[in-house]
Amino acid sequence: MASEVQADNAIRFYESRSYNYDDTWHVDFTQRFISYLPIQPGQHVLDLACGTGLLTFLESEAVGSSGKIIGVDVTPGMLNMAAHKKRQAGDKYENVSFLQGDISHLDRIEGLKGKTFDVITVASALVLFPDPKKVIEHWSGYLKPGGILAVDATHPRNLVAGMVFERTARRLNLPVPYNREWSQSESTLKNVVEDAGLEVEKVITCENQAGYGKRFHDVDTWDDHFVENVIVKDVTRTFATNEIRKQAQSIFKEEWERLSVDGKVEEVDAVFLAIARKSADGSRYISKLTMDDVVFTGGCRCSGVQYKCTAQPADITCCYCKACQQVSGSAFLPFVDVPKDSVEFTSKMTLKKLTLSSVATRFFCTGCGAPLSMEYHSIPETTSLVMSSVNLETFKGTIPKVKRHIFVEEKAPWTLLPDDGAPRLQRLDVSDEQCGLSANNISDATG
């Protein structure tokens, strides 16, 4: 059912764009897309979400008359334009055929039954699907052993108003025509493709996808973007009623402002392109570091910073020092210690260092202001993660418990310490091996 809804949304989203699609940046991008592919004469290529055939026809020229190309798309208008261009070219593209169908259900397309391909391409379409791993697994079934899959996903700040549109819809529990939130970095795309069973040979960041590079929007222009994306461009009628639009307006403004730094919202014109290969024997590729190795993931509120950790954390230290109060806006910060090399940031576009003393360096998100971690200079092999940044839904094993409260002499007068039996340290215990701090720097140990 979800797939049918997604397909219907895709048709509504793209049908009206069919007739001017070739007048957009997609022409230049498909030329850059194919330049990264090792397509050889005589190969058979499947171009999924082929649209008006921009990439399909380039692939036809690459494989030559001895090769075969099949383009598949769900939108009738797009395929009509592709078929028209093929007719206009006479015999030039005799090796090309087009099929209509939902690319998340290739098994339902009669013209693909029993076929496998040397190369499968999916340009500007992966983020249309709610479960990218699932569709890549499905597509890989149509790859020959040793075959290549090329697929791209958006930079998290690409078409930033669209990202805010998506977040707004999700907060209102409404269906969205695209699903970009998961795509945070080259690493996240690599992980998704490898979790689907293909070995990623490389991931490339393609800058200037639409030609504007990087730009900044004034934070108070949110209403212009709301009108353009929610009122004018909402072709799938996500926000169908005036009441829903009224709710969406305040949420859109809030999410837009969360992305701002110094009154500006950054937009980055880039996508990540992965080139992956099916194993020579057709078996499923097993990544050296799969999600099975990840104990938990985490990040900030706006998703500008995301991480994964492969180690079980130590129990929680609650710090009541003045610095922790000020950077959190609360009574304390809860930290868990993990080996530094067990943490990998899968997205850190808004990650910022903050140095308040010579003892430690803090890290926070400039997008939403969330504190994320702290590293003591005296124990460089350890990272202290803010426990509230941990995504507990992903946590494997035993959730950490509070093991101690520190710097209670600096706690706010309105704070009541919990009666949890955990030790309460006025400052830091000099003999505590975890902190590794000497008597000379105890007075500066607030980080």
Automatic annotation (TrEMBL):
Domain called CENP-V/GFA: residue spans: 296-420
Keywords attached to this entry: Metal-binding, Methyltransferase, Transferase, Zinc
Record keyword Repeat present: no
Alphabetized SUPFAM superfamilies for the sequence: Mss4-like, S-adenosyl-L-methionine-dependent methyltransferases
One of the GO BP terms on file: methylation
Gene Ontology molecular function: carbon-sulfur lyase activity; metal ion binding; methyltransferase activity
InterPro entries attached to this UniProt entry: CENP-V/GFA (IPR006913), Methyltranfer_dom (IPR025714), Mss4-like_sf (IPR011057), SAM-dependent_MTases_sf (IPR029063)
Keyword Transferase recorded: yes
Family in the record: Belongs to the Gfa family.
PANTHER family per record: TRANS-ACONITATE 2-METHYLTRANSFERASE (PTHR43861:SF1), TRANS-ACONITATE 2-METHYLTRANSFERASE-RELATED (PTHR43861)
Listed name of the protein: S-adenosyl-L-methionine-dependent methyltransferase
